[in-house]
Amino acid sequence: MWPAELAFVATLTCVLSGCLIIPTDYYQPYSRQNAGAEVPSALATGKTREEVLLDLGEPDRSSLDETELWYIASKVRAIIILGDRGGEAGVDYVHVVRFDKNGRVELFQTLFTNTGEASSDDSQRFEYSYLLEPHFSREHGQHPERGR
Predict the structure, then answer these.
(1) What does the alpha-carbon distance between residue 44 and residue 77 come to, in Å, rounded to a whole number?
(2) Taking the model in full, what pTM does it have?
(3) Distances from the Cα of 81 to the Cαs of 18, 75, 85, in angstroms?
(4) How many angstroms separate the CA atoms of 133 and 148, rounded?
(5) Is 25 helix (H, G, I), strand (E, B) or coil?
(6) What's the per-residue H, E or C state across the chain?
(7) What's the distance, Cα to Cα, between the start and end of the chain in Å?
(8) pLDDT tens string for the chain (148 positions)?
(9) Exposed/middle/buried for 71, CB within 10 Å: 0-12, 13-18, 19+?
(10) CA-wise closest residue to 42 among 108, 111, 87
């Protein structure tokens, strides 16, 4: 079979089996709208805390000493329907902004994406549940709830 014929047969098989993929591009209703893939180009090393807060707004998470701000966004890329069931395929953006002692951006990093679109390094991938835990202060060396 030729590639065009294979594509036709695969498409026909998916449609007849009740499988449907609808491409979309929208943010989840509970998610912030301004922290997607375009954020890295908006922030530069040396920006002040005030400039970051004006650009991105209040953070979703922050460290106890407020030297790190976390911005989280969830974007839906496709709606998948399989027979009588369905779901969404998306990407989660988690951006961390770290400030120095003078209140200027020292480090900006994307820690996690589902599809790898915004991640520069596989070593920066973490489980989503870890990222949503309260961040502990490095100065005190213990977790505020766990005591370690």
Answers:
(1) 27
(2) 0.58
(3) 7, 18, 6
(4) 14
(5) strand
(6) CCHHHHHHHHHHHHHHCCEEEEEEEEECCCCCCCCCCCHHHHCCCCCEHHHHHHHHCCCCEECCCCCEEEEEEEEEEEEEEECCEEEEEEEEEEEEEEECCCCEEEEEEEEECCCCCCCCCHHHCCCHHHHCCCCCCCCCCCCCCCCC
(7) 62
(8) 567 787 787 777 766 667 778 888 888 887 787 777 777 666 778 889 999 888 888 998 999 998 999 988 888 888 888 777 888 888 888 888 899 999 999 888 877 666 534 333 433 443 333 333 334 334 444 444 444 4
(9) buried
(10) 108
Residue 104 is given by DSSP the state B
